[in-house]
Write a structure and sequence with these properties.
alpha+beta; 4 helices; about 25% helix; about 30% strand
Length: about 180
């Protein structure tokens, strides 16, 4: 007798506001700590990791979007999106600048659900940049972008970068009317 699979978590995106800046700063510190395995980021003199670009998400709401990822109303991560990607020349491209799910919620399907919701929420041409040294990120993004786009994506390098990057490009689906 097999045990039935657990239902997927109820994952939602909530647009972050300046009122949630302190919460995002705390989550970004955890994210930066995780990234310190891949990139040469160090905590400041107070022992805290800082993300200096967060204020731009409140200063440029037309080109920057911050979202909290929730599972059953609990905050489990965030997504930061910017219009215009450093990896492309098209200022209309949407770029997943940062994406984070708390470790406890990884491999539960929450990241996949959140990414799909993000791409559906902001239709257009998307760019996802992943460092080749991000051993967990490469298979995650490859799999979910392949699934989301039904294989209609391009993956390549990021010319001119000293370290290796995988750059994914695809168009998000348009939400169906009615």
């Amino acid at each position: 007798m097999t045990t039935p699979a657990a239902p997927p978590p109820l994952v939602t995106l909530e647009r972050a506001t300046p009122d949630s800046a302190a919460l995002l700063e705390n989550l970004l510190a955890l994210y930066m700590h995780d990234l310190s395995e891949i990139f040469p980021v160090e905590p400041g003199p107070d022992g805290r990791f800082r993300y200096e670009h967060l204020p731009t998400y409140w200063e440029a709401p037309d080109s920057r979007h911050a979202f909290l990822i929730k599972s059953d109303a609990r905050i489990i991560g965030f997504a930061l999106v910017m219009r215009g990607s450093p990896a492309t020349d098209d200022p209309r491209d949407l770029d997943v600048a940062e994406f984070f799910v708390l470790r406890r919620h990884r491999r539960s399907g929450a990241g996949r659900i959140a990414a799909f919701a993000l791409w559906d929420l902001l239709p257009g041409n998307w760019v996802v940049r992943v460092a080749e040294s991000n051993r967990a990120g490469i298979p995650f993004w490859t799999e979910i972008i392949r699934e989301y786009s039904a294989g209609a994506f391009v993956a390549g390098g990021w010319p001119g970068r000293a370290t290796g990057w995988r750059v994914f490009r695809f168009e998000s689906r348009r939400p169906s009317a009615g």
